[in-house]
Design a protein that fits this description.
Distance between the termini: 87 Å
CATH class of the largest domain: Alpha Beta
Helix content: 40-55%
Number of strands: 12
Largest sheet: 6 strands, parallel
CATH superfamily of the largest domain: Response regulator
Number of helices: 12
């Protein structure tokens, strides 16, 4: 059996010191690019594999980042996890993933398990608000998208983004709107609702008032379909001309209900979402939604985690409106225009 290459072998092959190899392996950003390139070339040529266990015993940490999401089957969290993995790899770290299944006890259990494995740091997409949660951790912890305890948060500016949807629907002439809100026990759910409702209220003060109905549900397909089916089963004059959903999953559920009830989208009903999951651009009609910049959020979370010292303040990133085929002018407005002509 051939001998496994060592750090010393890598150093000799690259023509650098053992210390330089160690700094590259530990992900230090201060190493000159030309030296980093030499070391990585030597590692590739020799097939060197670092002894992670030995390094963890020496440094009491590994080049592994722990990520906890509430539900890995949720398309947005799956996309976010993929973005965090890419950002971690770009910084020389691998990713260890866990799903809490929206269970706070499981979430905290995963945190403790990651700490036992000497991870470099932990990123948590919280299952729900946990304002009382605060403990001293030996590694940095960053909240992503949803706040985890008192730890710094990297997130889309949910209120700003939801206001864009309100702007869009009001501009299309909709004055009878239903907002399908997310869970009230998440900061993201509350901020999206607040941003939407506040913008609609301002329109009512300076222009035509809006008949706004708010219905709460989960962020999933079933909630959207069930709520929309109830709304759209009403007589025509009693149902909304637009449904603004707090998530793409809810919105796609609403599209399904409208299709089953043979209500044309967007001619008779506009539907909007929030997140811009991959499926939003595949459903028919394609979904008007808010794009959360998952790659940017992931890079900032990983960056704050690896900063020396780690980041300690919140960071908010603006969302953007993506207009597709599921939203259109209010049907009553089109009727008035045609009669005028």
């Amino acid at each position: 059996m051939s001998k496994m290459p060592t750090v010393k072998d890598v150093a000799e092959y690259a023509g650098v010191s053992v210390g330089t190899v160690s700094r590259v392996l530990s992900g230090e950003t201060a190493v000159k690019p030309i030296l980093r390139e030499k070391v990585n070339g030597a590692i590739s040529a020799l097939g060197y594999r670092p002894n992670v266990t030995a390094r963890a015993l020496r440094t009491n940490r590994t080049n592994v980042i722990g990520l906890i999401v509430p539900d890995i089957t949720n398309p947005f969290f799956a996309q976010l996890a993929a973005s965090v993995e890419r950002a971690s790899l770009e910084c020389g770290h691998s990713l260890m993933l866990a799903s809490s299944h929206d269970d706070r006890e499981a979430e905290q259990s995963h945190v403790m398990a990651f700490l036992d494995r000497s991870v470099r740091g932990i990123i948590v997409v919280a299952s729900s608000d946990s304002p009382g949660l605060h403990f001293e951790a030996p590694v940095p912890i960053i909240s992503l998208d949803r706040r985890f305890g008192a730890f710094p948060l990297v997130s889309t500016n949910h209120a700003q983004a939801a206001a864009l949807i309100a702007d869009h629907l009001y501009g299309l002439g909709h004055r009878r709107i239903t907002y399908i809100a997310g869970p009230a026990n998440t900061e993201a759910g509350r901020m999206r609702q607040e941003g939407f409702v506040s913008k609609i209220a301002r329109f009512g003060k300076i222009g035509e008032p809006v008949e706004l109905e708010i219905v709460h549900g989960k962020f999933d397909y079933d909630s959207g379909e069930r709520i929309a089916r109830e709304l759209l089963s009403r007589p025509t004059l009693g149902r909304p001309t637009a449904i603004a959903a707090a998530s793409d999953q809810q919105a796609i559920g609403a599209l399904r209900a409208a299709r089953d009830l043979k209500i044309d989208v967007p001619r008779k009903l506009s539907v909007t979402g929030f997140d811009d999951i991959s499926l939003a651009n595949l459903v028919v009609p394609r979904l008007t939604t808010i794009r959360q910049p998952a790659d940017m959020l992931a890079r900032r979370a990983v960056g704050l985690l690896l900063d020396e010292p780690p980041g300690s303040g919140d960071e908010m990133v603006d969302g953007s409106l993506i207009v597709r085929g599921s939203s259109g002018p209010c049907p009553q407005l089109k009727t008035v225009v045609s009669h005028t002509n």
